[in-house]
Amino acid sequence: MAKKKDKTQGLALGLTNYGDTDFSIYLRKSFAKSMGYSDEMLAKPIVGIAYTASGFNNCHRHFPEMLDAVKRGVLAAGALPLEFPTISLGEVFLSPTSLKFRNLMSMDTEEMIRAQPMDAVVLLGGCDKTVPAQLMGAASANKPAIQIVAGPMMTSRHGEERLGACTDCRRFWGRYRAGEVDEREINEIEGRLATTAGTCAVMGTASTMACIAEALGMSLPGTAAIPAVHADRLRAAEATGAVAVRLAAKPITPNRIITRASVENALRILLALGGSTNAIIHLTAIAGRLGIDIPLTWLNELSDTTPVLVNLKPVGTHYMEDFFAAGGLGAVLRELKPKLNLDCLTVTGQTLGERFESEPGYVDRTVIASIAEPLESEGGLVALFGSLAPEGAILKRSAADKSLFEKEGRAVVFSSLDDLATRIDDPDLDISAEDFLVLQNAGPKSPSGMPEAGYLPIPKKLAAQGIKDMVRISDARMSGTAFGTIVLHVSPEAAIGGPLSLVHTGDRIRLSVKNRRIDLLADDRELERRRDQRQKDCPDVPVRRGYDRLYAEQVLQANEGCDFAFLKAVT
Length: 571
Ligand code: FES
Prior knowledge:
The protein has 4 domains: about 1-40, no CATH class; about 45-155 and about 195-255 and about 265-270 and about 275-355, Rossmann fold; about 155-190, no CATH class; about 380-540, 3-Layer(bba) Sandwich (Glucose Oxidase, domain 1), CATH 3.50.30. The chain is of the alpha/beta class. The chain contains 20 helices and 14 strands. The strands form 3 sheets. It has an 8-stranded mixed sheet with strand order 7-8-12-11-10-9-13-14. Helix 5 packs parallel to helix 12 (about 280-290). The chain has helices at about 20-35, 40, 65-75, 100-115, 130-140, 165-175, 185-190, 205-215, 230-250, 255, 260-275, 280-290, 295-305, 320-325, 330-335, 350-355, 415-425, 460-465, 525-535, 545-555; strands spanning about 45-50, 80-85, 120-125, 145-150, 155-160, 160-165, 380-385, 390-395, 405-415, 435-440, 470-475, 485-490, 510, 515-520. It starts with 20 loop residues before the first helix and ends in a 17-residue tail after the last helix. FE2/S2 (inorganic) cluster (FES) binds near residues 59, 91, 127, 128 and 199. The site of FE2/S2 (inorganic) cluster has 10 residues, from loops.
């Protein structure tokens, strides 16, 4: 007969069902003992560690070392750390695009947190889609959880220039396409863009999501921007393990941390950072897991009253390691303090307001501007609505050419990514710098799964003339490290018959950032005719299977976070 156990924690949680509780505990313990654990260790609370090291994820290269540090923190605080693998998403190693697998990773994370015996969980992620997936999963599982991120890469050198993935990847590729950089030099640069462990070195999606996790209160204060290879990153991992033990003892569940008020704080941070356009999709999906909607009109309201404060690539000139040295996210939060909801609870048990009392006040103004003298008076992102995007589209105005903000142009349409690849560099392409490039069928329900293809290349013949930016419109996304006057996430998307699908080359489109509008200037009757024609011309939809089919059937539009409909909170 097994001895009496504490059935409210650790190994006794979530028992395998054999119809006899004591037998289930006895059997589980006997198998756990096969891993060499003592009775004393097996009687402790358990902190699970969602572990995402992978040979296909360069950004998580240092995770074995971080895992050791998290475990050290858990053990020293009196609990048993047990890591478990989940899917890992290495941004550039996934086809057709990592976003397609974010929801799969979130399901993996949610179910493994729920199904395995743990009192709290540490989420160890970093590369673009991993942190949103982990936060989505943890929000749905609603067990005490704390996020620790990989941290950004360090920069490298090419001659006198600093290089950091991946804004400089695009900058040099653009120069190569324009003939300004030759084959030998682009090969040299290829080996210098990403040279350490960690996530992209600029305020791309990974760094934006790291800051959002901290702003939401889901990770420890001051940890978002610590470089991946800095010793502080390991100390942060150790401290995260210790706090996870506190969370196990005095549970604070994600639904008490991720609230409408903390989501508003996170949106303000996104806008003040001039952060990644992807982050609005991810934050919408995370909040949606707890029944919190983020209408794009809310984004615009906040954008009107949140200045851009951070001078980082791709919008500005500095890199994440400079941001860390300049005061990091704490300095930005302090600037925004009058606009933030200070009573939001965080994983430490303190409120956001209490955080400010214990922090030093250092800030380097060359990287982080004051609210009195911001870099831009309005937020980095703006949502556009109009006849081309009835449910909204996103423009990262802080990374765009303002001279293109109030403009009407002739559409030059590419019907798919294949069409774009085939024709964009055709010397006979009828195009001028005044035209608007339009890409269709690259949204979430398209076979391409909404890739980061919205950063349409400038046609080679225009690039060779020195054209650096044009208005580009699509239902795709763009990398957080990209820049340009790029209208993204057009909803509803072309693949489900949104107005974007009706645009023909030669149509006129009007962009007005001032009025938050993007309009297709076409006659209603003509559009109706095209809609009928489109339905007649529609090819048979290919039969899809497995996860691909689940994705196609369930994925929501960009303005709803591209989550699966059945994963949203039941309200
Ligand atoms: Fe992992 Fe950029 S490739 S963050």
